[in-house]
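Task 17 of the worksheet. Students: predict the tertiary structure of the chain below and write it out as structure tokens. Keep your answer in the requested format; marks are given for formatting as well as content.
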Amino acid sequence: GKHWTVNEVRALIRIWSDKSIQQQLEGTVRNKRIFEQVAARLQKFGIDRDWKQCRTKYKNLKHEYKSVKSAQDSGSTSRSMKFFNELDAILGHSTMEEASKSDN
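Model answer:
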């Protein structure tokens, strides 16, 4: 697919930071409907992405965030990413819960 611009990613993160979107995403695995909403909201910003592109970007950002975060937690400062702070604001609170879930 075509490369996401900085503005497109910003818009995606802005929508993602919506509490109701977050709650929906946390509560479900079958999330096509949620990403259809996300895509519709992006459309209002003039950004033409389908739900699959939104979901893929979301997953990639989340994955990248987690690997940077765990590198930082283990004391490495070399890894970083664009939008880390924005994502940390969204994901920073929930990673502890997820970590404890995966431990047992």
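Marker's comment: The longest helix spans residues 51-73. The CA atoms of residues 1 and 48 lie 12 Å apart.
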